[in-house]
């Protein structure tokens, strides 16, 4: 064995260390991302917008959620370019810093009462920064986990960065639950909401330490050593691999719609006072805010458990077969929504959250393996990130607002049909791809057009 080969072996990452590092990093990123969603529902309408029209304020607050979804493809293109050019490790450090600075910045912003229209404008800038950071985060984390995974276990190792989503959801809702319990609901709205945002600084330092101890992916290193890197990976993937980008985008669509219907629309619907829309449909259940936050924390645990389980099945029977079966379940779940939430009780809402986030884990877990497997190494960061984050625009950017309006005009069945239709789109996209569980990430020729 020559010196170069020996060095390469010595620098190869322990897959379990990579798995933990990717999980910790994505958990921090998703924590930052989700505390914004929680604050947008709970407090931003009164802190950053004119309170004279409460309904307009809540819609404006929720609309800022969409900014990150439109920024995420830009982040995936920016960080994807550098991830395929200079490596996964350095790019993941940069994406985590981008998210961290944006999140801490939100915690320091003056309110509408202090600086007027500058408050929502600065809030939007920070939210865009969060979108850029998460747009670059997911692809890199998925790649370092799957490119370092043992043979036959890519989907299971790929679930570790995916576990960042339920862990982040649990931490974010736990932070708001704890702050509200410690200081009271009034203090939460007035000032204590800043604590979860400022606490992100500590978490980011932990994530940076974890990532700086990793070596570069050996799969990427081989491409670099052989001179196979391309000068413009984003252009390359858009020109030569547009088909997999489109397929990956629609494969993820139902996942996004499901998640934001569950965590944003149902949250607004559950917490809103009991009332009827102009069309005669219920618009609220009057469940206390902290009660629903507790439901989401329980759901996050279920989400995490089934995210891990899904990787085992995706490795055993294949990504495509597993995801097609789960997507059929999502379609049925959407059509059954009124059974859970019409005249809903706290127990029926909790049941809905648990079942929905169980399905969410089953569909979300294998995505970190499937989407990267659609692309060759030299454009894998760019391709997987673009597909994942374009799906955020299609499936999540306006899901909450669309669901609220559908419920007002057509009731919960309208929202359920909306979820089911997006499930059909994902099912068709899955049907159009080949099984990828036996694809070698070191091979290029299978991808050539």
From TrEMBL:
Keyword Oxidoreductase: no
Source taxon at top rank: Bacteria
Membrane-crossing segments per the record: 20-44, 56-79, 91-109, 163-185, 191-210, 250-269, 289-314, 321-341, 347-371, 383-404, 410-433
Topological relation to the membrane, as annotated: Multi-pass membrane protein
Coiled coil: none
Main location class: membrane
SUPFAM superfamilies documented for this protein: MFS general substrate transporter
Signal peptide: none
Subcellular localization(s) per the UniProt record: Cell inner membrane
InterPro entries per UniProt: MFS_dom, MFS_sugar_transport-like, MFS_trans_sf, MHS_symport, Sugar_transporter_CS
Record keywords, A-Z: Cell inner membrane, Cell membrane, Membrane, Transmembrane, Transmembrane helix, Transport
Major facilitator superfamily (MFS) profile domain boundaries: 18-438
Protein name: MHS family MFS transporter
């Amino acid at each position: 064995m020559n010196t170069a080969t020996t060095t390469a072996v010595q620098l190869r990452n322990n897959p379990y260390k990579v798995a933990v590092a990717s999980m910790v990093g994505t958990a921090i990123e998703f924590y930052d991302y989700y505390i914004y969603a929680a604050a947008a529902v709970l407090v931003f309408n009164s802190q950053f917008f004119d309170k004279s029209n409460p309904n307009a304020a809540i819609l404006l607050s929720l609309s800022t959620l969409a900014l990150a979804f439109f920024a995420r493809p830009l982040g995936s293109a920016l960080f994807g370019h550098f991830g395929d050019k200079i490596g996964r490790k350095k790019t993941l450090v940069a994406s985590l810093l981008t998210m961290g600075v944006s999140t801490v910045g939100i915690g320091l912003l003056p309110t509408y009462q202090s600086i007027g229209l500058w408050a929502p404008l600065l809030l939007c800038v920070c939210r865009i920064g969060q979108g850029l950071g998460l747009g670059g985060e997911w692809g890199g984390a998925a790649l370092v986990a799957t490119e370092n995974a043992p043979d036959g276990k890519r989907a299971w190792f790929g679930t570790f960065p995916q576990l960042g989503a339920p862990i982040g959801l649990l931490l974010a809702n736990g932070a708001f639950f704890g702050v509200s319990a410690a200081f009271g609901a009034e203090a939460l709205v007035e000032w204590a909401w800043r604590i979860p945002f400022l606490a992100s600084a500590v978490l980011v330092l932990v994530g940076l330490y974890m990532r700086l101890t990793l070596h570069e992916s050996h799969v990427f290193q081989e491409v670099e050593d052989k001179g196979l890197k391309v000068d413009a990976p984003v252009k390359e993937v858009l020109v030569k691999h547009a088909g997999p980008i489109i397929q990956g985008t629609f494969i993820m669509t139902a996942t996004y719609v499901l998640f934001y219907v569950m965590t944003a629309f149902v949250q607004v619907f559950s917490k809103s006072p009991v009332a009827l829309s102009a069309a005669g449909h219920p618009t609220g259940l009057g469940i206390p805010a902290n009660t629903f936050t507790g439901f989401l924390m329980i759901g996050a645990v279920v989400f995490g458990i089934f995210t891990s389980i899904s990787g085992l099945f995706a490795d055993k029977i294949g990504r495509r077969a597993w995801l097609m079966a789960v997507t059929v379940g999502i379609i049925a779940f959407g059509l059954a929504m009124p059974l859970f939430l019409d005249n809903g009780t706290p127990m029926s809402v909790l049941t809905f959250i648990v079942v929905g986030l169980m399905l969410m884990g089953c569909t979300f877990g294998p995505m970190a393996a499937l989407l990267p497997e659609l692309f060759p190494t030299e454009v894998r960061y760019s391709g997987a990130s673009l597909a994942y984050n374009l799906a955020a625009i299609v499936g999540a950017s306006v899901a909450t607002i669309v669901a609220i309006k559908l419920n007002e005009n057509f009731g919960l069945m309208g929202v359920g049909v909306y979820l089911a239709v997006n499930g059909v789109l994902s099912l068709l996209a899955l049907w159009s791809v080949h099984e990828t569980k036996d694809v070698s990430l070191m091979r290029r020729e299978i991808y050539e057009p």
